[in-house]
Design brief:
It is a single chain. By secondary structure, this protein is mainly alpha-helical. The longest helix is centred in the first third of the chain and has 55 residues. The protein is built from 13 helices and two strands; from the N terminus they run αααααααααααααββ. Helices cover about 75% and strands about 5% of the residues. About 20% of the residues are buried. It has three domains: about 140 residues, no CATH class; about 170 residues, no CATH class; about 70 residues. The radius of gyration is 29 Å and the shape is elongated. A two-stranded antiparallel ribbon has the order 1-2.
Length: about 400
């Protein structure tokens, strides 16, 4: 009897679980539709408050917009926990919903260790989630209104995230610091997210962007799109991040200030120099070298030429001399393009050789590669029978050809 009773109890328990699961599956769509209705109401209210704030631009409208936005976020947050979580738990969720919940918990995990980033990331996640819903509604008028809010809010959130990263790098010494590798990666990933998800919508709106600046950003964006096809190697990734930094100088001037952007450029220069130095195959090394030359030019034009305050007067004077030579060389562009490219490379190589002498990284192989380039361009002599130390001292050896430094 005891055995039979246990079996009956077990059967009843299983039966009750099945009934409970069945009711959950029946009730879930209702909860989803209720949540959907609430989100629509709160979204419409928030967009109306946003439009009033943009039109009137006063403290009262701003306060109402902030309140409507806060309620809207709370409704979205409740939707994730009440609806998506239960659908995943009951194994009725789509892949999109499963990924959304996974991202949600990834954001929540930042709360204890990176609270400032968590605040911005959570808002970003919830608004992005609703953006996907609005796109699926298929009503152009609703999407157009929401997009105006979406771009403005995403600009603000991304600026907040980047500013937080900038603060983390603010106390570090000038130049690339390997101890902050993760922060550099986060900056490039965040810029990449913005370009992929927001910039195209922003460019289509064409609001709040000067015509010249708009054309420059669109051109950079078109170049960026070329890196979205196929698998990227290290050279491609460096070049892609170079484009991201270039765009950031136009969009995130204050959130990613010049000192931080300079550190990011130094990180890319370190990666590019190492790549040229370590690449064994001649054709790949040549491509890596061309990428490094483009990066050096980008760094000088888009960053150093805009720099107002210099820590050392000597560095400022050195750049002035460099910039004067560069402008002279640029005059050759329309006269003799081949000579222009040659003289520009010579200038960049010589300038970079001076800079990497003081680096902690051993760039001796890159120095030799640079010297060979200068010899090929008749900008440096070969000294037969002498071997040069990196210090500049020469020792006589047999059957040796060394690239002289005195003509650099």
């Amino acid at each position: 009897m005891e055995e039979t009773s246990l079996k009956i109890t077990g059967a009843n328990k299983s039966f009750l679980n099945k009934i409970s699961n069945t009711f959950s599956r029946i009730w879930l769509p209702t909860r989803l539709s209720i949540n959907g209705m609430l989100i629509n109401i709160k979204r419409n209210s928030m967009i109306k408050a946003f439009e009033n704030f943009i039109e009137e631009d006063n403290d009262e409208c701003e306060k109402k917009y902030d309140q409507a936005y806060e309620i809207y976020l709370e409704t979205l947050d409740k939707y994730v926990m009440d609806s998506i979580y239960k659908k995943v738990k009951n194994n009725t969720a789509t892949e999109f919903e499963k990924n959304a919940l996974s991202k949600y918990y990834g954001v929540i995990s930042l709360k204890e260790t990176e609270y400032v980033e968590y605040k911005f990331r959570k808002q970003k996640f919830l608004v992005e989630l609703d953006y996907e819903t609005v796109k699926n509604i298929g009503k152009d008028k609703i999407e157009e209104k929401f997009n105006k809010f979406y771009v403005q809010k995403m600009d603000w959130l991304y600026k907040g995230i980047l500013k937080n990263y900038s603060i983390k790098l603010a106390d570090t010494s000038k130049g690339y610091d390997s101890t902050n590798e993760l922060v550099y990666v986060k900056i490039f990933n965040t810029l990449n997210e913005y370009i992929e998800n927001i910039l195209f919508i922003k460019l289509n709106q064409e609001e709040g962007i000067e015509e010249k600046k708009y054309e420059e950003i669109r051109k950079d964006y078109e170049n960026y799109e070329a890196f979205e096809v196929g698998k990227l190697d290290q050279r491609d990734r460096i070049e892609k991040n170079m484009l991201l930094l270039g765009i950031s100088r136009k969009l995130f001037t204050h959130s990613l200030p010049l000192t931080v952007a300079e550190q990011c450029y130094m990180k890319l220069l370190t990666d590019a120099r190492t790549l040229v130095q370590d690449t064994k195959i001649a054709t790949k090394r040549e491509k890596a070298f061309n990428m490094l030359i483009n990066l050096i030019e980008d760094y000088n034009i888009k960053l150093l030429s805009t720099k107002v305050y210099w820590d050392r007067a000597e560095d400022r004077e050195n750049f002035k001399a460099f910039w004067s030579k560069y402008k002279e060389i640029c005059k050759l562009k329309d006269v003799d393009f081949i000579e222009y490219v040659k003289q520009k490379e010579i200038l960049f190589i010589k300038d970079d050789m001076k800079k990497i002498r003081d680096e902690k990284i051993d760039y001796s192989k890159l120095i030799k590669y640079y010297k060979r380039k200068l010899v090929d361009y008749d900008a440096m002599k070969e000294i037969k029978g002498f071997a040069s130390k990196f210090t500049g001292k020469y020792e006589k050896v047999s059957n040796n050809i060394e690239l002289g430094e005195e003509s650099v």
